[in-house]
Protein 1
Amino acid sequence: MPHPEIELSAATFPAEGADALVIAIPDLTGDGPGPAGLADLLPALDAIGFTGARNAFARVYAPGFSDAPLAVVGLGRRPDADAVRDAVGTAIRSLTGFDTIAVSVAAEVEDGWRAAAEGAALGGYAFAGYKSDSQDKKDKRRRASRVVVHAPEGADDAALAAVRAGAEAVALVKDLVSTPAEWQSPAQLADTAVETTQGLPIDVTVWDESALAEAGFGGILGVGKGSDRPPRLVRLDYAPAGAERHIALVGKGITFDTGGLSLKPAASMVGMQEDMTGAAEVLAVVRAAAQLELPVRVTAWMCIADNMPSGRATRPGDVLVMADGTTVEVTNTDAEGRLVLADGLIAASRENPDVIVDVATLTGAMIVALGTRHTGVMGHGDAVDAFLRSADRTGELAWALPLPEHIAEELESRVADMRNANVGNRAGGALFAGLFLQRFVGRTGEGDDAPRIPWVHLDIAGSSMSTGSAFGFTDKGPTGATVRALIDFVAAGGEVR
């Protein structure tokens, strides 16, 4: 199981039946009496210097409070849902070797139990991996398979179902991103999309290389032609009866990115199986929407290819013809994500959805701009504000960036309608990519004067991976960033709420 089973309990804490306990505690440095019900615990906390600082974690020996192994984690001075989610995630991630852990939040936080359940489910994730450690080592570092969160009477079962679906979606993304490229070709990733949606009301269509050529998807074919493993395009359609809104999700699925003939340096190529994160995310989100029976139609497009060098590979200077007939001069074969996404955006636009969102590990420039925890957000229409509100509600870090018209001039090519990269100019690289994609978002009516379909571009190049230390509920490695925000965005119909 990729994450622990989450249960709720209204029993007095600590109840029997747990192998270990976790208490999330607010700042203790003030003059007040401290959290209610913890008087027997406070001397033990004082003895180890635990102050309740945010995400501070400690094991505590407090036999006067409970005979079960006990850990405490800090909520800081201003406890809110984000603090609870991070703190409980930290605790469940850190407190290993126990099968069942009971969790309590010693602070008044609106829907604190839900945030605690989210933190437990997300922090309890562990990738099965390929280590050959002894069983003894595995037992000592195993995370809980069951977490009991203490909640008030009448806690919302629907909210708990949403927590479980969100955690499962994040876990699916992390599992797929952690799978070595050797075992995840474009065809295998397409098969995974079929397999993981079986039993759900989701129609799946897969284009192989012959179907892609017949349909004119020149961007996906151009990126994938250098590989012995042909590309795929996958469409997943969840269309509940009576849905009044239609959201299209387009994900970049580069199963390995060498940079093509514009070959990456050796160090930059390590971890490039992660370049299919966007495709994994749109799969996970449409799957969660179906599980939760959201009354919104969601169509996900997974644009999948290997970007490899060979005698067949696209060369710098070659011109590709996109699915709508637009010609693109390829000036950098390592700017391949925008080429596969262009075809996906064209295909999504043809169905006239209310909103289009694309998700991609797109540009190193985004990491330079925003670091490794914020997702860069671009686009047009109220959908951008709607996504930012969803990100705020779910505690995801996101930042809006502009699409400057003066940079759009740099898209022009001498030999084609446009070019895919501004080689030699590092200024505004993430914005250039966003402007490139914008050209392929369809319009709401006939003619070039008609407004484009509301669109959000999410560049998760930095936020999709935690390359440093673990933090909050997030391990080192894939983060699943924007998955929970996208589920919330879909639930809101892509509208500002």
Protein 2
Amino acid sequence: MNDNEVLVLDVPSVEEARKAAAGQWGLDPSDVAVKVIEEEKSFFGLLGRKLRVEARPVAPLSALRGKAMAARLLEMMELHIIPELSDDNRINLTGQDAGIIIGKYGETLKSMEFLLNLMTRGVDEGERIYLDSDGYRERRELSLQRLALAAARKSVKRGKPTYLEPMTSWERRVIHMTLKDDSTVETKSVGEAPSRKVVVWPVAPARSSSGPARRPGRRRA
């Protein structure tokens, strides 16, 4: 946590400190932790009590700002979804409309994640915002792993490269990592975003007479 994420305030109450810090950082007051470091008593009831406090965000500012912006977007979309911050600072979208925000193959979720990162760019240089919806990313990762293994079997059987659907950098990385120890295939990303995709190439066995078989370029997400 840097100095910009700690405020020292002189306020009449802890609640006022939360509101002031939340307003400065663009957060919900519930996302601000306050610690009293000094208390000045009233003088015979003539002056009100004054507190000196330290205010800190309860998590990285970039993640909390992303959560606040997500809440505003969801409210404008009139969806019954609540953004929550997980232990790894990923924003989880949960509620009765969670399926709507995922979309087909996670396209709506990916689009919202992209939009939130654009909105927070320039506000600070914090970590990238990642969205999830009730464990969708874990389910998607398992699905991608199965897809990668199936593509490898198909490529080896046919002796031809297999082109997968366009994917995000995170999804392509799952494919690459799943097949990185498979000596029968090579993976490579081709194309430009948002149409960038993974190609799974079969690798011919080495021949002693001609030396090792030529292999395609190394993996690049």
